[in-house]
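re: the backbone from monday

yeah here it is again, tokenized this time
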């Protein structure tokens, strides 16, 4: 079992890693911008501009994730949703958010819940709409009648077979990010259910104590 001192050391190390990651993204964005300005062909400039936009979004997401707390969670989620929507728009995918007014997320759960949402939304954008030029991902965050938190991430994509999902091999779960989501939800002391959405797509629902 880790001592409080070990926990503090881990938090300091994690903060340093985030800082270094942010610097790396900024350096990469600057490099791509330089290459874009130096490019002589319009197609090359257009492609580099697209890469620069994605890297810039990554910087925004990383900064927002690093600063999230219970008090700032709503604003963080709004900022993240705008970034996901911008990123998904390249594939015709829109990302929307509906969050219950006054919902309070505990500080100790804020970072983990933010990571869960990030994984579920990113997974939907990447896997739910193969060969399609449009789609929608909806994020919902509310409280249940018994006072628990309830996160729903729903897409209108190709859907997932609910009978096959529990039997996915570890390699499949790694590819879809499910292993990370399951691990994070366990840290929340929550429960994850993945099912086929009605009328189409996939619904991932997480219930967790507040």
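seq for it, each position gets an aa:
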């Amino acid at each position: 079992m880790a001592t409080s001192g070990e926990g503090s050391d881990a938090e300091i190390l994690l903060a340093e890693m985030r800082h270094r990651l942010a610097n790396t993204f900024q350096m990469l964005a600057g490099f791509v911008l330089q290459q874009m300005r130096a490019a002589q062909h319009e197609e090359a400039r257009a492609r580099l501009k697209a890469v620069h936009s994605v890297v810039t979004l990554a910087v925004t997401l990383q900064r927002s994730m690093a600063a999230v707390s219970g008090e700032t969670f709503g604003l963080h989620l709004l900022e993240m949703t705008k970034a996901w929507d911008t990123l998904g728009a390249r594939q015709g995918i829109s990302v929307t958010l509906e969050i219950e007014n006054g919902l309070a997320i505990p500080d100790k759960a804020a970072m983990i819940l933010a990571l869960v949402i990030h994984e579920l939304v990113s997974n939907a954008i990447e896997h739910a709409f193969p060969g399609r030029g449009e789609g929608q991902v909806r994020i919902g965050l509310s409280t249940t009648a018994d006072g628990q938190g309830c996160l729903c991430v729903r897409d209108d994509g190709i859907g997932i077979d609910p009978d096959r999902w529990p039997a996915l091999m570890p390699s499949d779960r790694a590819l879809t990010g499910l292993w990370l989501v399951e691990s994070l939800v366990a840290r929340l002391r929550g429960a994850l259910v993945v099912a086929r959405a009605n009328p189409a797509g996939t619904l991932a629902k997480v219930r967790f104590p507040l």
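Strands lie at 93-99, 135-143, 149-155, 191-196, 202-208. The mean pLDDT is 78.
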